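Possible regression after last week's pipeline update?

I re-ran a chain I had predicted before the update to compare outputs. Posting the input and the new output here so someone can diff against the archived version. Not blocking, just want to make sure nothing changed silently.
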Amino acid sequence: MNLSETQHRFHLSPTDLTFVADTLAGGERDRTGVLALLADPASADAILDQPALLRRVLDGREQLAISEFLYFYLLVRAVFREHGLDDPDLADHVAEALATYPEDCGPTEGRSPLPFAVDLFEAMERAAGAHERFYLQVRAGNLLLVASGLFPDHLRARAERRGAPGLRYYEECGASAYQRAGKHPLAREFCLAERLEQLGTVFPRSRRALNRVAEEYLVWN
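New output (post-update):
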């Protein structure tokens, strides 16, 4: 998780750009126009919101050479808009959290791959300095949002089997982690204060929107 990199949708990979241009362009002149619009943040969001892109992702008849970020962004953006979460920066942050989730979880050493909130908050308390604590606060918010958004049934089952906390607890802990991060001095340095505070405020709605992504669009092995 590189906190210095935000708005990932404005820095798509070459394969992502090819996918968007091939999907939306009717010819070489149109291709050039689409790529030019994608290079301009003022128009890129309107291009990425084109329904044809999501339809092609959901079609399932071809193997798409696109990044995990763009795949998740198109899904998250569509579902978030239906839940009244209209800010594309919000979908951008969550899509990147989804794309990097396995890496951010780290080694599980035989434990559940889903995070335990208490472990995440204990890591924050042990942080060596302000920068590490801020990083761990953002990481905790991301992990708890993805875990409660994509794997609610696993968390419910863990609560039933082991007496672990339920989804409401994960919502509260995730929202708290984002809000702590948003008040950290480094949040202003990275221009993330507003975004992190927003993530804390809309955590329950974001979690429910991700529940729908998991139920309707993702296939688990």
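Follow-up from reviewer: compared with the archived run. The CA atoms of residues 4 and 190 lie 6 Å apart. Marking as no regression found.
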